[in-house]
Specification:
Elements: E1 2-7, H1 14-24, H2 35-43, E2 49-54, H3 62-81, E3 85-90
Parallel strand pairs: 1-2, 2-3
Helix pairs in contact: 2-3
């Protein structure tokens, strides 16, 4: 099983988060860097993958907090639709 640890601490824009996701998740070059493309790539995973998402401990502005909520929802939706994907959220995952 492949394991990926994602740490969103210190990220201040959705573009920065999407670039980070593309790199850490090893998405294909054509990854669209948005939540719909994230869902598509996560549901296309065909081998077992565990993803640990480290949630920021510091308060974000409301825009980033709302985006992170949508991001986590996308991970949860993809996990529900792809039996090869296991997602864990928390402040202290590693």
């Amino acid at each position: 099983m492949r394991k990926v640890v994602l740490n969103f601490d210190g990220m201040n824009s959705k573009e920065e988060i999407q670039e980070y996701l593309a790199e850490q998740m090893e998405f294909p070059f054509y990854y669209g860097k948005n939540l719909d493309a994230l869902y598509d790539c996560l549901t296309d995973i065909s081998e077992p993958v565990a993803v640990a998402c480290h949630m920021p401990e510091e308060e974000k502005d409301s825009y980033m907090e709302a985006y992170l909520d949508k991001l986590y929802g996308t991970f949860r939706d993809a996990e529900a639709d792809n039996g090869n994907l296991a997602v864990f959220f928390g402040h202290l995952l590693y």
